Amino acid sequence: MKTVKIDFDFSQLLTIVKQCDLNQKLAIIKAIEKDTFKKRLSILLSELKNNSINPEDIIKETEKVRKARYIKKSKK
User: Fold this and answer.
1) What are the sequence ranges of the domains in the chain?
2) Shortest CA distance to 29 belongs to which of 41, 13, 19, 17?
3) In the chain, which residue ranges form alpha helices assigned H by DSSP?
4) What's this model's pTM, rounded to 2 decimal places?
5) Residue 54 and residue 16: Cα distance in Å, rounded?
6) What are the tens digits of pLDDT across the range 20-54?
7) Contact by Cβ (8 Å): 20, 28
């Protein structure tokens, strides 16, 4: 298989992607997710290490979500 190298900028890449059909776009997304997994995981782990979550914060957030769901359900 012969390899061809083409230089293009980011806006040209976006133009090419916009011309792809849905299945091709989904395949591109999968490839990018696979390619960037280690970096995204590293960022997530570093954020978790720097942000301590205590039980009180979890309880407050849980109560907030439950209250919002209750209000939404009551309006139906």
Assistant:
1) 10-74
2) 17
3) 10-18, 22-50, 55-74
4) 0.55
5) 46
6) 999 999 999 999 999 999 999 999 998 888 777 78
7) yes
